[in-house]
Design a protein that fits this description.
- The protein is an alpha+beta fold.
- It is built from twelve helices and eleven strands.
- The strands form three sheets. It has a six-stranded antiparallel beta barrel. Strands 7-9-10 form a three-stranded antiparallel sheet. The protein has a two-stranded antiparallel sheet with strand order 8-11.
- The radius of gyration is 22 Å and the shape is globular.
- Bound molecules: adenosine-5'-triphosphate and magnesium ion.
- Magnesium ion binds near residues 38, 191, 192 and 206.
- Magnesium ion (MG) binds near residues 38, 192 and 206.
């Protein structure tokens, strides 16, 4: 993650709300590093301290602070004055805009090992423009997939395959959970996928575009960053499903193998052309099912002479056969044919992860770590159905 200018900004607020208990507390916030700048807001790294003796439950759910090395688990009901909680990432976005963000609403209900967790939230007026900003205090991860892909690309490598498998599996697992609630993230891309290269953990972030999709209720199709936008969105489908996120997942997996985005369209329409260069011309039924009113270029001329399978093998010439097979099941025009999260998770590409002997070595370490990838909740087991038998360690 790009580490920009150091800053120290410390302030005390009378009402910082706990996500767990919804209770307000008087807290001091110390911001010391800018870690992200997006289209909608700023993300800073910070530590927080209770000024009125916060509740123990918060201490236990927080990691140790970078600013204080004291063990927070003091067994008492309150924290003392010099105990900082964190580090956290605080995302700050304007509270009222014409664009409806459901980020707080969604982050308050989701709880999953592969989704960034919200710890606190508060509103604050900015002294520079007098506007109210919403602040989301989240657990902080050291990197994201965009940074990792770039890091390896610079040294002409790819992310090691065992890491790729573990990351992709966790991404599929996050989608199984979100889609189980009908929530679509709608902005899947490498920079919105946080990772910790020391533990190979992955968590989806940036729920600024997320929405619970209701059957037969239209949603805007102009959503999702262009390179990762599903073909049905490109042609203006408004009754799309959570499968748009699976397309994004496929693009992210492809990017881990290629080191660069797979479909780099220079305009919204030419994005479809880039896709057609791999998948061939979209079938007429695709346009009809997605948006019968579509009048744009349909790219009906086949742009390559071989079969689609051969085309995949050409483009992913250095990638293993099981990875190519997975991508061929995800990168398909018809969202109904596109793999579901459970089908993704049950794919042979992840077989290695299910072996009792599987261990992963974090970057630069000779000590292997074990990953907890199959500790499914009852909710997840229910969503997996018969697939759960394939998703066990043997
Ligand atoms: N919890 C976190 N821990 C560490 N870094 C984070 C966290 N949340 C966000 N970031 C960093 O800040 C960046 C911007 O955050 P986010 O994507 O939520 O904001 P955004 O304004 O919606 O961005 P964009 O519009 O560019 O997608 C992320 O790409 C990531 O690098
Ligand atoms: Mg983002």
């Amino acid at each position: 993650m790009a580490q920009t200018a150091a800053l120290v900004n410390e302030y005390t607020l009378p009402q910082v709300f706990s996500n767990k208990t919804s209770a307000p507390s008087r807290m001091t916030i110390r911001e010391y590093k800018k870690i992200g700048e997006g289209a909608f807001g700023t993300v800073v790294e910070a530590v927080l301290r209770y000024e009125d003796g916060g509740v123990l439950s918060e201490q236990n759910s927080s990691s140790k602070s970078g600013a204080s090395n004291k063990n927070l688990n003091n067994g008492g009901a309150t924290t003392s004055k010099d105990e900082w909680l964190g580090p956290f990432a605080i995302k700050r976005v304007p509270a009222q805009t014409e664009y409806k963000s459901r980020e707080l609403e969604i982050l308050r209900v989701v709880q999953h090992p592969n989704i960034v967790s919200l710890r606190f939230f508060f509103d604050k007026k900015s002294s520079s423009d007098n506007k109210i900003y919403q602040n989301l205090v989240m657990e902080c991860l050291p990197s994201n997939l965009q940074t990792e892909i770039k890091f390896y690309r610079q040294s002409k490598y790819t992310i090691p395959y065992p890491h790729m498998k573990a990351y992709t599996f966790q991404l599929g697992r996050a989608m199984l959970y979100l889609h189980g609630f009908g929530i679509s993230h709608r902005d899947i891309k490498p920079s919105n996928i946080l990772v910790d290269p020391n533990t190979i953990r992955l968590k989806i972030c940036d729920f600024g575009s997320a929405k619970k999709l209701e059957p037969n209720q239209p949603s805007v199709s102009y959503i999702c960053s262009r390179y990762y936008r599903a073909p049905e969105l490109i042609v203006g489908c408004s009754l799309y499903t959570t499968k748009i996120d699976i397309w994004g997942l496929g693009c992210v997996v492809a990017e881990m193998f290629l080191g660069k985005p797979i479909f780099q369209g220079s305009s919204p329409e030419s994005q479809l052309k880039e896709i057609a260069k791999l998948l061939g011309p979209p079938p007429n039924t695709f346009f009809f099912k997605s948006n019968p009113q579509y009048r744009g270029n349909m790219y009906t001329t086949k742009l390559f002479s071989c079969t689609i399978e051969e085309r995949f093998r050409q483009i992913f010439s250095n990638s293993p056969a099981d990875a190519i097979d997975l991508l061929m099941k995800i990168l398909v025009y018809d969202p109904e044919q596109r793999a579901s999260p459970k089908r993704v998770m049950a794919h042979a590409f992840f077989d290695e992860l299910k072996s009792r002997e599987f261990k992963v070595y974090p970057r630069g370490s000779s000590t292997p770590i074990e990953l907890q990838l199959f500790n499914f909740s009852d909710f997840e087991l229910g969503l997996l159905g018969p697939y759960k038998d394939e998703l066990k360690i043997h």
